[in-house]
């Protein structure tokens, strides 16, 4: 696997992937990291995910809330997609579909 290639792909798609994950269900940061760990091309570090989640929160695409997990277990900060986030994700989906279509057309010649 070409590490530089993978790094560039991740950098350009993580926001889209994270927004898609959170649209499916509310998630906390470590849950996002664990889910992405199942996909070698998307595996990433906390130092990448948490700043991205904070930026999406700041931009109004996500909102957060704390969930108590029970006695002796620290509360978790969950992220939920907002209406603005759904609109943004729809645009990302459209852009992704166009990108894939363009690449496929170019590959076919």
From TrEMBL:
<protein>
    <submittedName>
        <fullName>PadR family transcriptional regulator PadR</fullName>
    </submittedName>
</protein>
<feature type="domain" description="Transcription regulator PadR N-terminal">
    <location>
        <begin position="18"/>
        <end position="90"/>
    </location>
</feature>
<dbReference type="InterPro" id="IPR036388">
    <property type="entry name" value="WH-like_DNA-bd_sf"/>
</dbReference>
<dbReference type="InterPro" id="IPR052509">
    <property type="entry name" value="Metal_resp_DNA-bind_regulator"/>
</dbReference>
<dbReference type="InterPro" id="IPR005149">
    <property type="entry name" value="Tscrpt_reg_PadR_N"/>
</dbReference>
<dbReference type="Pfam" id="PF03551">
    <property type="entry name" value="PadR"/>
</dbReference>
<dbReference type="InterPro" id="IPR036390">
    <property type="entry name" value="WH_DNA-bd_sf"/>
</dbReference>
């Amino acid at each position: 696997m070409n590490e530089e290639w993978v790094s560039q792909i991740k950098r350009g798609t993580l926001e889209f992937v994270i927004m898609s994950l959170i649209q499916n269900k509310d998630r906390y940061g470590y849950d996002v990291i664990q889910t992405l760990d199942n996909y070698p091309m998307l595996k990433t570090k906390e130092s990448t995910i948490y700043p991205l989640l904070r930026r999406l929160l700041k931009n109004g695409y996500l909102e957060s809330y704390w969930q108590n997990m029970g006695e002796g277990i620290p509360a978790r900060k969950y992220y939920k997609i907002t209406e603005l986030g759904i609109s943004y994700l729809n645009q990302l989906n459209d852009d992704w579909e166009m990108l894939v279509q363009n690449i496929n057309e170019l590959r076919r010649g």
